[in-house]
Design brief:
Helix content is 58%, strand content 10%. The chain is built from 22 helices and ten strands. The protein has helices spanning 14-23, 40-50, 66-76, 91-99, 112-159, 165-174, 199-219, 248-268, 288-305, 313-316, 331-340, 344-360, 365-385, 390-393, 400-405, 410-450, 458-465, 469-480, 484-502, 507-513, 519-530, 534-540; strands spanning 5-10, 31-37, 54-58, 81-86, 104-107, 185-193, 229-233, 239-245, 274-278, 309-312. A five-stranded parallel sheet has the order 2-1-3-4-5, sandwiched between helices.
Amino acid sequence: MDGLYSFVLVDDETEIREGIRNAIPWEELGFSFAGACTNGFEALDLVERIRPDVVMTDINMPFMDGLSFADRLPGVSPMTKVLIISGYDDFEYARRALQLQVYDYIIKPVTPPEFKEVLSKLKRTLDEEREKRRDLEHIKKQLAESLPLLRERFLVRLIEGKPDREAIRERVSYFDLSLPLDSAAYDCLVLDFVRRRGGENFDIDLLTERNMLEKILGTKPETAVFTPGILFQDSADRLVILIWGDTPPRVYREGLKTAEFLCHNLQSLGFKDISLGVGEAADALESLSVSYNTAVEALSAAQLRGKTGVAAYREVMGKTGASRPGPDPHWEKRIVAALKAGGRDEASRLVGEMTAYFQQVPFTLEEFRIKLALVLAALIRCCEDLEIPGAEIFPSGMDPFAETARLASLDAVRLWFTGLTERIACYTQTRQENFAQVKVREALEYLESHYADPSLSLQGLCKRLDISMSYFSANLKKYHNKTFVEELTAIRLAKAMELLRTTDLMTYEIAGRIGYRDAHYFSLCFRKYTGLTATEYRFANAGGAGPVNAAAGFDTGDLHVPS
């Protein structure tokens, strides 16, 4: 029955064999009685055929005694447990049994209860060992299933430069990789999409692309001279092809040839939006990270520029990271200066010019990130100088430096920095407009309460408001569509009309009350403003019969200025 442990008895006495076989409830105790033998030779033959879990043997038997049998048993069935049963309480026998790692040494005579206790203890031991074997088998199965993942993890650590020399040798052997460890050169090709799709779509694209690459690399057509290579996936979900050869120059040339072939095939299969970075060749596995990092640099530069196809590091970087044409343009200073001068369009134009510059010149990814960080830092300082709260420019919880580090293309850089400069410019412009509107309102309120002051002037008003005359005049015209003189005149003459309607004051008295030193000049202004003399206006608004002839109703007071 399944789950029962098989038991074989070896004893030359028939009575003992039958007595033990018949006296024990084997299945109840978790065992099945698998056979009985009369000597060691017969037992070895049976054990070899059925591989029992337990064998109990007497010591004294013809042809082969129990200790000799126990000594030879591991060579036939190493997992079988051995019980020695003997009529002699002999220390030498017991010592020899211990040397042979016999499970238990039982002295005859043994009663059924005593024997049941031995079997119960033995079953617990067998159960524990069976469970351990099952656990080990499960672990081995998991290991076998995880081997491809562990292999890729090792390769990722290898290109990241983490394992030491001895770890490399041990792991290469363990994973059965065909990588040469000595007298070889290595190169990394790193492939990615210029613009990744999101979520499940990306995983589908990546898996499809990997399957296609495996097929392409597996065919190795004669038209493309391939070096040996290994395909795997890095920690950023990019596909890496590790190739090797005898010398760095040769393996680099082979890398370019392989990259061109793979790109051509992938694009012909519909993967148009891919770039493949080719790194510098390394002369040792310990320095493979240099090849990988330069391939990633070339790939990242291509992705930033939105370029597809092969991107070789030495070509993208101008062979040796060529010097930049001309002096540093100092974009950060120029953009900030434009913003402080109120040049919203100029700041946006400079951002576009900056990204166009990086589209053309060679640069490393580190250089590019440093330059973006400098520009961002300058814009943040600009906000501080202009007293713009950060919360007005950046969303709550945003780390702008981390945000710029995630920008994956020059187009994204241009849009992000253009948006930032526009937010700064808009805030500044809004604040300036609010300030101007406040000053215009304050000026009008002051004119309303001080119009009677004959010394009231534009210069004096602006000095009181702490603004320039040109700034105030421009904004008064913008928000009120009048000049200072027009606004003051309108206020004064409105007050004059009110006094003419509600009082009996003479014209010259009214002129003095509203800030005119010269009554004649007041009369001229009043007539120009209303089309009537002061007397005609008073008469017309006192219930008179319509418009009056100006000459007939001429009031000498209009021209008289009392001394």
